[in-house]
Amino acid sequence: MYAIVSIAGQQFKVAKDQHLFVHRLQGDEGASIEFDEVLLAEDGGKFKIGAPTIEGAKVTAKIVSHLKGDKVIVFKKKRRKGYKKKNGHRQLFTKIQITGITL
């Protein structure tokens, strides 16, 4: 059984006991959260497709930890002008574990 769910503006294919890294979510570590924007669900070869979402379907997850991603360096330069700009960025992520899919 799997489902395609919208989490923080992005779509993910999720299954039970799967770990995901999503954009930072509100909540403490160990807290349980529910996502009700289920777009598609598959159960034993039978598909349910939402228009745009499936009514009554939910995906429950547990927040495992909050962390930062790898550093991305942004470097801008204009040749012969002496202009250089170096910036770094680390995206904030939340690691979640899918605990169940209900239809």
From TrEMBL:
Keywords: Ribonucleoprotein, Ribosomal protein, RNA-binding, rRNA-binding. It comes from the Bacteria. The keyword Nucleus does not apply. PROSITE patterns: RIBOSOMAL_L21. Signal peptide: none annotated. It holds the Pfam family Ribosomal_L21p. InterPro entries: bL21-like, bL21-like_sf, Ribosomal_bL21, Ribosomal_bL21_CS. PANTHER family: 50S RIBOSOMAL PROTEIN L21, LARGE RIBOSOMAL SUBUNIT PROTEIN BL21M. NCBIfam families: L21. Belongs to the bacterial ribosomal protein bL21 family. Part of the 50S ribosomal subunit. Contacts protein L20. This protein binds to 23S rRNA in the presence of protein L20. This is Large ribosomal subunit protein bL21. The lineage of its organism: Bacteria, Pseudomonadati, Bacteroidota, Sphingobacteriia, Sphingobacteriales. The gene is rplU.
